[in-house]
Amino acid sequence: MDISNWICINKNEVFSNNYLRVRNDKVQNPKGKEVEFSVVESKNFTATICMTKDEKIVMIKQYRYPWSSVSIEIPAGLIEPEEDPTLSAKREVREETGYKVLSIEPLLTWHPVAFSSSWGHLYFAIVEKEGNQKLDENEFIEVLELSKSEVEKMIQRNVIIHGATILGWYVAKTKKLL
């Protein structure tokens, strides 16, 4: 049996806005049985571990409405249509933190959740302070500079709970960038 032999019979959009679409698809699985799958289509995004030349980690602090709490995390954002992910990462770092990217390298590309079609692009960057933030109208972000040990402790104590931040942190450590 070919486990990748899934056939879409029809797609039914049940919700759509500027950020995402939700579909209920009727599909035939590899054994020939018809089943329904819900799919969330959303834009691809970037998230960047940012470190200064003196090895401070630049993080952001913002309120996450769906979580009803403040989150400490790495700069991240949606990739604009036709935008290169690396350029998107640099733009998001500059807009959210006021820091300029001096060098950047890709860490990982992954699907953040199984029911979504989006891709996440993780980066590691060396940054320096350049100016003020350039926030969107609905963004309220504080910038933090933390030591590596502070970030590590915050992850271990569940203070930092943002998935891309935790994934990026440990991938960067594995690659000996931190």
UniProtKB/TrEMBL annotation:
GO terms for molecular function: hydrolase activity. One of its GO terms (cellular component) is cytosol. It holds the Pfam family NUDIX. This is NUDIX hydrolase. Its cofactor is Mg(2+). PANTHER family: NUDIX HYDROLASE DOMAIN-CONTAINING PROTEIN, UDP/ADP-SUGAR PYROPHOSPHATASE. Keywords: Hydrolase. Residues 42-168 form the Nudix hydrolase domain. InterPro entries: NUDIX_hydrolase-like_dom_sf, NUDIX_hydrolase_dom. The keyword Iron does not apply. SUPFAM superfamilies: Nudix. GO terms for biological process: nucleoside phosphate metabolic process; ribose phosphate metabolic process.
